[in-house]
Here is the input.
Amino acid sequence: CHEFYDGGVSFYSISVDYSYTYPDGGRAFGRYELGEDGVVCTFFRHGFERCDLYVQDARGLVLITQDSDRFLVR
Here is the structure.
């Protein structure tokens, strides 16, 4: 489970199920696949998909989206 500073929470289950809880409490569901070098591809039930990269930097764990947005994990 990864909680972000904006209040969103990503949950990656052992069984490849995925959920994201938005800061307002809304939820999106799907599945994920782990790639090489920290890449995580998420396939949402509503049809959206993307691949993001997790990296460790001096601040901690950071999610870098495929659009190059960065989100620090709490």
The mean pLDDT is 93. The beta strands are 2-3, 9-12, 17-21, 27-34, 39-44, 49-57, 60-64, 70-72. The CA atoms of residues 33 and 41 lie 5 Å apart. The longest strand covers residues 49-57.
